[in-house]
Structures are given as C-alpha cells and as structure tokens.
Structure to design on (475 residues):
C-alpha cells in the first residue's frame, strides 16, 4: 500500500488557530525587560476563541511564541528549547491570587535526569519561533495541575541565551478557570480516571511517566475510550494512548492493534457527527486551502473558503460554502441542505443561475479540481454514504504537535476513487485528503471558528445570488 505525499504534511495550523485544548486561558499584555518577547496563549480547538472554563483534569494546552525585538540578529535556542524536556523553559502556576509555584511536568522531570543538548539558531529581527505544551499533571505534587474548581494563573520563563544560562525572559500571565464536570458521563469518566490512577496519561507526555506497566495502562485507556464515548476527556485519551503505543515497541500488542481498528471503525461516523457540522446553532468557519493537482505538486491552487453552517433540532442542517480566494473563483457558492438524512445540493456562480445538482455525476464532480467531490463538501465531509475506512494507518505530529490521524477510504459505489484522509482528533476536523491513485491532494488550515447569528433566509437557494459574506464580517 502506497501512502501519498500529502501524508507527510506538517500541519500548518498557526498558534492562533491550532486545534487542541483546552480551556480558557485569557491573555494579558506581555512585559519584556529583555530583547525578546515571550508570549503565551491558550491553544484551543482549531480556529476557536479561547474558552473561559474547562473541566478539572482536562489538559490545558498553551503555545509559546518567542520574538526578537532587539533590532539585530540574536543567537537563541531553537524551538526545541521551548519544550519542557529541554530544561530551558518552565511554567509557574498560581491558584487564585496566591504565589506562583513551579509546575513540574513529566517531561521537565525527565529532562533533569537526561543530558539533553538543545540546538541553537540565529533569530533575525522580528522573527519568531513557536512551540506548545500541555499543562495537566504535576509530578512533584502527584496530582492534576489544576486539581480544584477555581481560578488559576500561568506564566512561563525561558532561559534563552546559549552562552549565558542566567539570561531569561518572562511571559505574560494567562488566567484560566476550572469547574467540576456536570454531565454524568464526564463525572463517571473522571472517577474512572482517578480510580485507575490514569491522571498522568491524559496527554501524549504521559508516555514518559516512569512505569513498567504500559500495557496495563493502554488497556485501561482503551477501556475509558470505549466506555465513555461522549465524554470530553475521551478526546485527550486518544492522543495519549497513541503516544504510548509507540513506546517500547507496543504497536504490535493486541491492545494497540485493537485501538487502531477501533479508530478505523468509528472515524467516518465521528467525522460526520463531531466535525464541521457537530454543533447546534450557527457557526462561521474560515479555512485556508492548498490543492495540488498532480503528484509533482507543479500545479497548485491556494485560497480561502468560508463555511456558514446551522444545525437546529427538527429543522436539519444547512451548510453554505463561499469561495473567498482565489479572486478568479470568488463568489462561487455551494449550498448543502440536509433534511431527514437526505442531502440536496445547489451551486451558484456569479453571472449564472442557481442550479440544483441532482444526478450522481454532477454531485460527484470534483470541487475546484481537488480530490473531494461537491457532495463531500456540501455534506460537511460526510463520507459514510460512499466509503468505508481502514484501520488507522498513521498518526503524525507537526511542529505544533497537533496529531493528524490518517486513514484509507475504500469506495462502496462505482465511479469513486480510493482516498486517504487526515483528521485532527480533538475537534475531529478534516485537515487533508489525497487520491490513492491520482496526484490530487488538499490541505486544510482552520483559521477561525466562531458563533454567529445566521438568519434562515441565507440558506434558501433563491437567495444565493444576493448573499454577501461581508454582512457577517467575512472578507
């Protein structure tokens, strides 16, 4: 089986839009006394504004951005120096208005026993390097980093100078709040985590927790995934157990094989139910895309799309896709109307009339020449109608450590090509796809996701010619 080139993408999610974490970390202004500015912010689900609260025990992921404000070149550590395992960066947490205390991450404790050499680089004026970390379990205290409901503050210190280990820069302060879970499924999942001593294993960093019982831990984490399918905690367990399966050659164990089969069996249903059209109410999603039209990537189409989606119980789902860029395609609209499980598709291009796509040939034509059909776009990436998925083939990490889960899709109807898809597993968003035999691929980068008041009438086919995205602040 030959994996396409697109499987090696690093995810290009920027720090402001990454998809994974997870609670609210409210940003304050950074004060720099050094020639560098270190800023930190919450890394929420892709493109989201920062939440204001998250659950006790739910991992909080923060991003680090180091920027050179000196006006000339500066020698610093690479982005690897912005990881806890480097020993060059540390987080401090304060409960309420109390004093800041050192946060002992699993990786920072590991670094204290390892002789880690961090590469250096030259940071040019106004150039930035970025990294990110989960904060969730304090090794020194042997409990969650945010163990109780309430308000917490976080700051980060980075020792940045390879030639002077005393030089450091301090970040802005982030505020977050935690609350006890109220949904029974989350309450039960949290109790299961505590009963089975799984607190250190809610993020990929848990693979470095000192234990010889990885097989048993993987078994319990898989049990947690299967038992509490609707729990918020489950999304983090997926990443954690995949990281554990890479340790100590455990990929061949029955539990790790079963996990990959579990993910394959559930991925298309999860992508449909928990992805782009997962939320009640109205949502605007801005996406940057890159379509490669051949294997050599010699021909590419780069642009931006806006999804306007609405889900109301008893009313059905609506998805309006509007092409923002490239300019030659601006104004192209695809409308999906889903009622009682049936999808109606309409298209509009400036200067033409609105058309409903009825025939299978029309509905399965490729959108903008990429690997995905109009039907797949208009349904919010619902592949369940025409495909089955293999077990998990691959899980990859970018520089921002956002996992991408890769699956092969086999068509169940004639006339469709086999696909590979990449999925971000925290908010279950499609981040890429590629044909198994041809050269077409697409990468999706979620720039913004926000709630909006979208009136019903914008989803009426007769109103597509007058639709203006600027009315909703989309340019």
């Amino acid at each position: 089986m030959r994996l396409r080139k697109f499987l090696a993408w690093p995810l290009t999610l920027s720090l402001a839009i990454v998809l994974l974490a997870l609670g609210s970390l409210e940003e304050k202004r950074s004060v720099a006394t050094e020639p560098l500015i270190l800023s930190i912010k919450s890394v929420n689900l892709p493109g989201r504004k920062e939440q204001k609260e998250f659950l006790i025990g739910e991992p909080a992921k923060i991003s680090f951005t180091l920027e050179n404000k000196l006006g000339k070149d500066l020698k610093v550590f690479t982005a690897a120096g912005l990881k806890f395992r480097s020993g060059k960066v540390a987080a401090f947490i304060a409960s309420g208005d109390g004093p800041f205390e050192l946060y002992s991450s699993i990786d920072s404790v590991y670094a204290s026993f390892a002789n880690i050499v961090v590469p250096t680089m030259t940071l040019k004026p106004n150039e930035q390097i970025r990294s990110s970390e989960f904060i969730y379990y304090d090794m020194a205290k042997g409990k969650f980093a945010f163990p109780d409901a309430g308000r917490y503050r976080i700051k980060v210190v980075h020792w940045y100078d390879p030639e002077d280990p005393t030089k450091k820069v301090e970040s802005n302060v982030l505020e977050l709040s935690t609350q006890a879970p109220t949904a029974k499924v989350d309450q039960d999942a949290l109790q299961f985590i505590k009963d089975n001593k799984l607190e250190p294993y809610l993020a990929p960093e848990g693979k470095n927790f000192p234990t010889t019982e990885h097989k048993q831990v993987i078994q319990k984490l898989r049990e947690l995934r299967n038992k509490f399918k609707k729990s918020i905690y489950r999304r983090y367990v997926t990443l954690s157990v995949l990281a554990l399966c890479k340790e100590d050659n455990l990929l061949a164990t029955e539990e790790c094989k079963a996990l990959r089969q579990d993910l394959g069996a559930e991925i298309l249903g999860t992508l449909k139910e928990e992805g782009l059209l997962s939320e009640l109410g109205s949502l605007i999603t801005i996406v940057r895309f890159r379509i490669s039209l051949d294997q050599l990537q010699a021909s590419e189409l780069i642009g931006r799309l806006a999804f306007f989606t609405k889900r109301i119980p008893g009313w059905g789902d609506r998805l309006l896709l509007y092409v923002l860029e490239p300019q030659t395609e601006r104004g192209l609209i695809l409308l999906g109307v889903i009622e009682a499980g049936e999808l109606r598709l309409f298209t509009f291009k400036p200067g033409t009339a609105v058309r409903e796509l009825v025939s299978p040939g029309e509905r399965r034509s490729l959108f903008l020449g990429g690997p995905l059909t109009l039907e797949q776009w208009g349904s919010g990436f619902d592949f369940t109608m025409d495909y089955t998925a293999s077990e998990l083939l691959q899980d990859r990490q970018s520089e921002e450590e956002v996992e991408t889960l890769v699956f092969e899709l086999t068509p169940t109807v004639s006339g469709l090509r086999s696909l590979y898809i990449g999925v971000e597993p925290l908010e279950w968003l499609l981040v890429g796809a590629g044909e198994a035999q041809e050269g077409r691929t697409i990468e999706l980068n979620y720039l913004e996701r926000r709630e909006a008041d979208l009136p019903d009438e914008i989803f009426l086919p007769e109103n597509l010619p007058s639709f203006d995205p600027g009315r909703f602040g989309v340019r």
Notes: Residues 240 and 351 are 51 Å apart (CA to CA).
